[in-house]
Amino acid sequence: xxxxxxxxxxxxxxxxxxxxxxxxxxxxxxxxxxxxxxxxxxxxxxxxxxxxxxxxxxxxxxxxxxxxxxxxxxxxxxxxxxxxxxxxxxxxxxxxxxxxxxxxxxxxxxxxxxxxxxxxxxxxxxxxxxxxxxxxxxxxxxxxxxxxxxxxxxxxxxxxxxxxxxxxxxxxxxxxxxxxxxxxxxxxxxxxxxxxxxxxxxxxxxxxxxxxxxxxxxxxxxxxxxxxx
Length: 229
Known about the structure:
Helix content is 17%, strand content 45%. By secondary structure, the protein is of the alpha+beta class. It has an 8-stranded mixed sheet. A 5-stranded mixed sheet has the order 6-17-16-13-14, with no helix packed on it. Strands 5-11 form a two-stranded parallel ribbon. The chain starts with a strand and ends with a strand. This is DUF2848 domain-containing protein.
């Protein structure tokens, strides 16, 4: 079981809440817009990743992979991040955060589930209550920047409407025998990358709420470990 001390920001202020996570799920192919989802599927096909048999797909990953860390270590140079909103359940309440589904793209070509397990999933330490954003959910914006060869570029950007809504996704999870109970965290899908999926030295991720004028942010660097055999 993974315990993380989060900062919950709500309309009354903020406070620290320690949440125990024993189930980490990565939801894939969650696109609400089938055209955009097809674009992302083609991006991965170009890297040798096979099409999913059905959508959405829910991959299980060790709970220890979720961490509000400023740096991760990845073997080789073929990994990259993706900004995703996260749903977490604790004491019967659902919270929203952000994380990066950092993935080994070389391993992904022959085993998606294994590729998800290969890398850490850096996340924001700050959370929101889902109940505070549910009424204007479709206005939220996901964004990421990648630092590549020393240059910071806009890597992803778009409204969360690109992905299934939280309740729709949780309903699909239940149909696949998933249980969104206390201690569960789900990364909920991502946007197509401008210029295609590629590695970087650093990723900056953000979930912006333009209605309540606040953002969840996190930044992390990638240390590349050598491949010697």
